[in-house]
Sequence to fold (1012 residues):
Amino acid sequence: MRARTLILAACVLLLAAMPALATLLGQPFYIDLLRRVMIFAIAAASLNLILGYGGLVSFGHAAYLGVGGYAVGILAFYGVHNGWLQWAVAIVASALVALAIGAVSVRTRGIHFIMITLAFTQMLYYLGVSVEEFGGDDGMRLKAKSRFSGLIDLDDPVAFYYLVLVLLLAVIYLVHRLVNSRFGMVLRAAKSNEARSRAIGFSPYPYQLTAFVISGALCGLAGALLANHTAYITPAFMEWTRSGEIMFMVILGGMGTVPGPALGAFALLIVEDLLAGWTQHWQIVLGPLLVLSVLFFRRGLAGLLPGGGRNG
Amino acid sequence: MNLILVFEQLLNGVQFGVMLFLMAAGLTLVFGIMNLVNLAHGSLYMVGAYLTVAAVQWTGSYPLGVLLGLLGTLVVGMLVEVVALRTLYERDHLDQVLATFGLILFFNELIAIVWGRAALYTSLPSYLQGFIEIIPGSIYPVYRALVIGVGLLVGAVLWYVVAKTRLGMLIRAGASNRTMVAALGVNIRLLYTVVFGFGAALAGLAGLMAGPIYAVQPGMGELILIQVFVVIVIGGIGSIRGALVGALIVGMVDTLGRAFLKPLLGHVISPPAADAAGPALASILIYLLMALVLAARPEGLFPAKSG
Amino acid sequence: MRTPARILAAVFAAASLLIAPLAAAQQKIKIGFITTLTGPAGIIGKHMKDSVELALDHLGNKMGGVPVEVIFGDDQFKPDVGVQVAEEMLKKHQVDIVSGVIWSNVMLAVVPVVTGAGKVMVGTNAGASPLAGKLCHPQFFSTSWNNDQTPEAMGKFLQDQGVNDIYVMAPNYQAGKDMVAGFKRYYKGRIVEEVFTTMGQQDYQAEITQLRARSPKAAFVFYPGGMGVQFVRQYFQAGLRDRIPLYSVFTVDETTLPALKEAALGQYEAKFWSPDLEVPASKRYVADFRKKYGYTPAFYGAQSYDGMMLIDSAVRINKGSLADTKAVVAALRKADYDSIRGPFKWNVNQFPIQDFFLLRAEKGGPDGVQMKIQKKVFDDHKDSYYQDCKMAW
Fold:
């Protein structure tokens, strides 16, 4: 267990030192690349809460990236650049959307849950594409990054990087605490044996719905960050293939583990970037890599760490 | 809106539904019996289309090309099952999702490397290019009528196999209780490979039939995959009957929605609003349908597993 | 197996970080070219990439006597990946200038990144209207067109022909709506119906049946990529080709003709360029392209070839350097090169002022079916957004 903590701590330190390292090597691009990876790691961590620990396979998580992103974008469109307000709206709006979708979906199970969440995301996507006011699928520019009353300047790539890093760690910690609380116990119990948890007297529905809402809200935060990072918001944020990518990060990294989502996000996006720089046929390499990783890394990448991929 | 138009659109809906059925039948069998979520089903559809186009060009004969294409897809399917998918049966659905997604990437790129990214040229043999008059005043392309015919025939054959043969009995037994079937001494491995091959052949058939009318290009399978999943969810997992009914319903709702929703809406709300809402609503109609069906019957219309 | 794998991964990551700076600082012109190389739209990227490489061949891999290197990036049809690729080119590869981009949404996201970094962008396809109007920028040039110009040309042609009762169809997304809006800007006749279909839809039988039932005199459609192959093929299979003439934009071109062949015969398109355009630079481009690659280039490629030649002219004027952005802008504004469209003129928004033609798919040519220019529709056409552009030069 200690070796595992040391390795993870080393990774965090490496991430923290990245901007300095990158500037030293004259490669400031890596600050942007890793920032994007970390934003998706936040999205993956949020999904891990309900997918990894709750067993709820939401194929519609990209919807919250879109809701969060558009919350920031639409407010900026109307001249509201206050970051506190924008991000609060992003989180609350995502929570509300998750509540609406979850109220209907959480009653279903298995493949049906997957399909319903997918269906809702498709609907949101087509809605985004049809609404011309905010650019339709051309998307909309973010006129100015979110402003935080002088506390932090998001136009400074390094400051933005550290903000995302801090938020990533905070989200991972939050999920970790949630999962190990009484609330989390019920959630995990419902995942492993629903009948038994009902028999003890817990109805899983309210717990799962709450987890679903929290998960959506956190992903909305990732959406707000992504909007600021790209300075552009499009319905493509909500494509079902995007949901699939986030899911893959969680699965690849190791479901129901603390470092899993971050590991998965890093592995998938960085390997993609490296391969794409090497050959335009990178998908023919990535595909079998994914298959092999599933066949051999039974508990995902987190399972490679000392201490195994056990929950914690 | 005259009756002939409505009839033609109904026919269009049936034809689209039949294509979905061919894809859905294979997918629901594999999911129901082997409990395998196979995202790469769309890739087998693509392989079927490509192999057939290549075979037709090579042999110069459409029927021969079709046969070779089908056999080729069957072989590819069984190969994929033996090489990549065997170990996934016991694994979590999500692991299957990730692995089969990897297969999608692999196949798309492989096809792109061999045949290029541009859509392929396909054409129908001249004897399939005409029109038939099903009811007076309405002409319908021969090929599409053929698609309907083939689809319904396949449906009938599948029904016969599943309901009346020993293999079908094993399939039905496997869908409702896999462990029991294995315990009873059936060679489950062989059964799985055969069923997967069946599913692949069905997907390949859908692909080769789609070839002349849709664009044959890398990634063509993913475009239709979501709709196929909607079909099997509505129809009920593991059920061929569900796949057929689900496919026909989805095909009809989608087609009729695209054709008549805007004009119908125009009667209820103002025409400019209908102009904007109509197309948007038509795109999400099948998802709304699915949500409704699941709200009423969460297991789908004809679930294979009882209880 | 566990620990060594992680060490390997860490080493790999560190190595790739360090290898990059080794791209040493010899005097070189570096151009970043962003396009879509994977996925169904990869064919467009192929036309563009092959054209860029042919341009380099024609230039002897040098611009203004200085060796030139083009770094290609794949935006995967996603704006945020496009932004990442642009950042990678600017910060990691330190390109002198950025070019390319097929899609309007990617373009709108990428342009601020490039101009914000103090560099110039030469767009070679996407012609999003805001960039021609309110968002025009001295550091953004386009060798293609504004998105609306092409449908405007088709609209003008049909208006001049006095054709009434036209059935309009397009996919339900921003570009689709823009095409229809552009068409209606010049076409004032009677439109029977405007039908917007789902993005990525494959089967148009239902819509074609509706179309046939309304008996329009002509149909105007916009169906790019795979959607076009499907729509045109199904239109042809429904037997409507001879009964209701089909006029389209961005639907039938050299990226989709090989898939359609005889199904496309008789189709009308509007465009600023065609492989058979009688301009020496264009003929040379098409002939050498066919010789080198064995297929006929589409307008995406012609625009990209033009982009490279335009950049070359700027490098020559600036004596082999693109370092001074103001000087680059001034040089690009001169447009002192032989464009594939003939004499080249800039509009104030740094989009070309150009002619537009009516094309028709006819039998003949090395591929069996080819697009041939029928007549000129617009002379020196300006787009409809330049008045919103406040640049003065």
Observations:
- The interface with chain B takes residues 51, 57, 104, 107-112, 115-116, 118-120, 122-123, 126-127, 130, 240-241, 244, 247-248, 251-252, 255, 281-284, 286-291, 293-295 of chain A (CB under 8 Å).
- The longest helix of chain A spans residues 204-230.
- Chain A has a mean pLDDT of 87.
